[in-house]
Amino acid sequence: MVKILYVTTATSFVLTPFCILYAVYALSSRLRKNHNAEWVLLGSPTLLTATTTAASNLVKFIFGSGYKAIDDPVVVRLVVAIRCLFAAGVSFWIALKCLALIHS
Fold first, then answer.
1. Residue extents of the structural domains in the chain
2. How far is the C-alpha of 23 from the C-alpha of 51, rounded, in Å?
3. Residue 34 clears pLDDT 70, i.e. is over it
4. 3-state helix, strand and coil shares in percent for the chain, rounded to the nearest 5
5. Which of 69, 68, 100 is nearest to 83 (CA)?
6. Rg (Cα) of the chain, in Å, rounded?
7. 24 class by beta-carbon count within 10 Å (0-12 exposed, 13-18 middle, 19+ buried)
8. Is 51 helix (H, G, I), strand (E, B) or coil?
9. What is the pLDDT of residues 48-103, one digit of tens each?
10. Is 20 helix (H, G, I), strand (E, B) or coil?
11. 64 Cβ neighbours under 8 A, 6+ residues apart
């Protein structure tokens, strides 16, 4: 039972960052196409060419309340999805650590 739980948690732990990256890419693309002024204000963040400042501003946008100023339900859903995926990733990491302690 522990082995099945460990494999399931490990798989989720590996897949979650890819889901987060895709959601961040989708959010950045949505902001660039539909809310260009906000995207430029954030420092024009993209997945591969984001500067430290742009990445920091995007994180503040996601985990702050700045996204609420944009009246776009898709942006809100993407931000909520990124937050949930981040929480899931942290939970999976904690679960793996606990399983490693139990299993050792």
1. 2-103
2. 18
3. yes
4. 85, 0, 15
5. 68
6. 16
7. buried
8. coil
9. 766 788 888 999 999 999 899 998 999 999 999 999 988 888 887 787 777 777 76
10. helix
11. none
Residue for token pair 């742009």: 54
With tokens 């949930």, the residue in question is 84
Q: What is the pTM of this model?
A: 0.80
Do 90 and 17 touch, CB atoms closer than 8 A? no
Q: Which residue has the higher pLDDT, 13 or 28?
A: 28
In order of 14, 27, 77, 95, 96, the CA distances from 101 in angstroms are: 19, 37, 36, 10, 9
| Closest of 29, 89, 28 to residue 62, by C-alpha | 28
